Automatic annotation (TrEMBL):
Protein name: L-asparaginase
Pfam families reported for this sequence: Asparaginase, Asparaginase_C
Location of the Asparaginase/glutaminase C-terminal domain: 252-359
UniProt keyword annotations, A-Z: Hydrolase
Low complexity bias (residue ranges): 10-23
Region (Disordered): 1-27
Organism: Chitinasiproducens palmae
Amino acid sequence: MSSADHPGRGRANGATAAASAPAQRRRPRIAVIGTGGTFAMHARHRFDWVEYAESGVVHPIDDLLRTLGDIAPDVELLPLSFRSLGSVSIGPDDWLALARLIHQNAARDPGIDGFVVTHGTATLEETAWFLSLALSLDAPVVLTGAQRPANTAGSDVAANLRAAVAVASAPASRGAGVLVVMDGLVFDARDVSKASSFELNAFEAPPFGPLARVDADAQVVWRRHALTDARRAAALAAPGLLAAETQVDWPRVDIVLSYAGADRVVIDALVAAGTRAIVCAGLAPGRPASGEFGAYVDAVHAGVVVVQATRVPRGSVPVQRFLQAAGILAGGDLSPQKLRIALLLALRRSADAAALQDLLLSL
């Protein structure tokens, strides 16, 4: 017998069902910030995987989101405007502007559950690392990009954006800091680097590997979590850095690559140009070439901070007697480019060698 035959019973059953049903879950709200790069570029033909920038067409993020359609029907996407840049053109002022945009929107709208930043892949790892040093948010910040423009064959634009949104909206991502999502893998901003020019699986994090993966059904499977970025940000981001709108006077910090037969010419030129710090991307053991070493010693005597790193992807430079005797700091296992970014922020607060050494090895 149907409930229509017994209206009272039907109403009672409906009320009981409504009372016992769980409250409808709010859709996650994810802000999406486009910065240009391959992700936003329009190729000239379907196999234009190399020189697509020559088209000169870069799509704004709101246009891209409309074109891509419902990549995450259960998530509310909020496009945020930012400057459009090729990743070979981005620099510290752009990083700071991006960090301020995220910081201000997180403060203004606590209902934002996470941020996705679409970015060119050439310097994606550097932008991610800067943001991890500058921001202290519970909401995740996820960077993604693409190896092939959206209108080319085999493009990874939609898949990478879908995966990034899945990570940004996953409850387990809260407190994870700044992450990079590419080709279905989730990386810590500290460890990730680009390892291939054109392959879709272009990013890796030697020797530790990814933190998680995003499955085909957009479920995020975690295997480990990164250390929180709050401690890093507290140690490096000077008070008022994100709140201020004034231009920051960044210290000059340079990287010098060691190779067989390298001499002191580049190092001397940088000291003459007024560099505040030099990161030596040294040979595999974490040492400069013999022809460079004297120039680094002289640079330290001239007041320049010198940090010894290594050019190999799985290298590490511990504190050693020969470095201490020369006044050169050890870079640990951070890449040269990430050591440079840490110094850009740290030197705004202090140039004390002992304090800088402790800081670099704690990141």
